[in-house]
Automatic annotation (TrEMBL):
The keyword Cytoplasm applies. Residues 199-329 form the Fructose-1-6-bisphosphatase class 1 C-terminal domain. It comes from Lonepinella koalarum. This is Fructose-1,6-bisphosphatase class 1. The keyword Ribonucleoprotein does not apply. Its main location: cytoplasm. Mg(2+) 1 binds at E90, D113, L115.
Length: 335
């Protein structure tokens, strides 16, 4: 059995020039995951966790109490580190500058969706935390700027998620494959349980909110029909599975193969998911595990961001399935 801490130290030894900053950040994220795990698992037992907080985030979405608790837990854990210069979150209107002597000289920035799928909390359905880590591009000795957060996903140095499901797992990559750690509450440790994840190149599961079907682009409608047609050779019809929690749907597809799609629709002309702290970190993981992630046409990781909370259509999962969906999107682009 290998703990996450032991794994991080072991991997750091493979980089002779590593100073331990990224390892330290990952250890802080481990602590954040434990705290959020604890809060989620006692949510029904206290009045201060379930339900809505009574305000909205910058996206105009109602915040759950646990959204704010998870965000503040993440922010304060990172502020305590000497190697983080700034922080951006779905729950923060603007990026946060750690404007101290330490922060101004720190080399990394973190972006996060601290509690994705939080509307599921009150009905005891899986939720997740997503994080994305970059080296800053602005000069050391000065506060971070928006430019530090406007980097394309192909510049990420690490990304990962925590899925609070039937068990809690932390899954991350630093660019050399994907590894998964299952939390053992009796030990208080995350232990290596899924070494060098590989996402099956194909699968028989598609995840999409078909309630929005009438608003989907024609290419998506054609792909859904393709998934539902009988064809023994390609093992269709596929199964439809949609949890309403990106991290949970993605995690299942990582293990079993499958595709998750949140396309553009008239409700969300640019899709619902955010590029910087949902699309990019999940796309980095997908590609590191042998999968693909696109907006229906272009690689997610190559998109140059223009706004902190910009949304992006997301087609992500098994390579062959994403490629097939892209074929339909291209064929019916102007339909
Ligand atoms: P809808 C949760 O709010 C989320 O960002 C993803 O985790 C999830 O897949 C999606 O939105 C659900 O959105 O519109 O289908 O309810």
């Amino acid at each position: 059995m290998k703990t996450l801490d032991a794994f991080i130290i072991e991997k750091q030894a493979e980089y002779p020039n590593a100073k331990g900053a990224l390892s330290g950040i990952l250890s802080s994220i481990r602590l954040v995951a434990k705290v959020i795990h604890r809060d989620i698992n006692r949510a029904g037992l206290t009045n201060d966790i379930l339900g809505y907080a009574g305000n909205q985030n910058v996206q105009g979405e109602s915040q759950m109490k646990l959204d704010i608790i998870a965000n503040d837990t993440f922010k304060h854990a990172l502020m305590a580190r000497e190697d983080v210069a700034g922080f951006a979150s779905e729950e923060e209107d603007e990026f946060i500058i750690f404007d101290t002597e330490r922060g101004r000289n720190a080399r990394y920035i973190i972006l996060t969706d601290p509690l994705d799928g939080s509307s599921n909390i009150d009905v005891n359905v899986s939720v997740g935390t997503i994080f994305s880590i970059y080296r800053r591009v602005s000069p050391l000795g000065s506060p971070v700027t928006l430019e530090d957060f406007m980097q394309p996903g192909n510049k990420q140095v690490a990304s990962g998620y925590v899925v609070y499901g039937s068990s809690t797992m932390l899954v991350y990559t630093t660019g050399n494959g994907v590894n998964g750690f299952t939390y053992d509450p009796t030990l208080g440790e995350f232990c290596l349980s899924h070494e060098n994840f590989q996402m099956p190149h194909n699968g028989k599961i598609y995840s999409i909110n078909e309630g929005q079907y009438l608003k989907f682009p024609m290419g998506v409608k054609k792909y859904i029909k393709y998934c539902q047609e009988e064809d023994a050779a390609t093992q269709r019809p596929y199964a439809s599975r949609y949890i309403g929690s990106l991290v949970s749907d993605f995690h299942r597809n990582m293990l079993k193969g499958g595709i998750y799609i949140y396309p553009s629709a008239t409700t969300y002309p640019n899709g619902k998911l955010r590029l910087l702290y949902e699309g990019n970190p999940m796309a980095f993981l997908a590609e590191q595990a042998g999968g693909l992630a696109s907006d229906g046409y272009r690689r997610i990781l190559d998109i140059q961001p223009t706004e902190l909370h910009q949304r992006v259509p997301l087609f992500i999962g098994s390579k062959d399935m994403v490629e097939k969906a892209q074929e339909f999107m291209t064929e019916y682009k102007d339909a």
